[in-house]
Structure formats: C-alpha cells, structure tokens
Amino acid sequence: MGLVVTSANGKQRPVDLLLRVDMPIEVDYYRHDGLSRFVLRQLVAA
After folding, report:
1. CB 31 within 8 A of CB 21
2. What is the pTM of this model?
3. Helices (H), 1-46
4. How many H helices and E strands in the chain?
5. Residues facing residue 6 across a β-bridge
6. Which residues pair with 5 in a beta bridge?
7. Using an 8 Å Cβ cutoff, are 32 and 38 in contact?
8. pLDDT tens digits, the chain, 46 residues: what are they?
9. CA-based, 20 to 30 A from 23: which of 2, 8, 10, 33?
C-alpha cells in the first residue's frame, strides 16, 4: 500500500508506506480501521 504525493506543479510520485505498531492496543485500532471507529464500536457494544 502506498501514498501518492502531488507537488505544487501537479507532478505526482508514489511513496511506499510502512506501518509501525508499538503497543497491543494499536493492533486493535488497526483492525477496526482507526481509533475513532474502535471507540464507536466499544460504545455501541456497551
């Protein structure tokens, strides 16, 4: 997966990305497509 960077002159270039996970809770955030979705799902389940 990557990112496309667009310069002010309109030129685009792809950039590869690397995900770093430092804590177990971050795995949960990633699995839920982000922190806000994780929190919302926790609220709905409560």
Report:
1. no
2. 0.51
3. 24-31, 35-45
4. 2, 2
5. 12
6. 13
7. yes
8. 589 999 999 999 999 998 899 999 999 888 888 888 888 988 999 9
9. 2
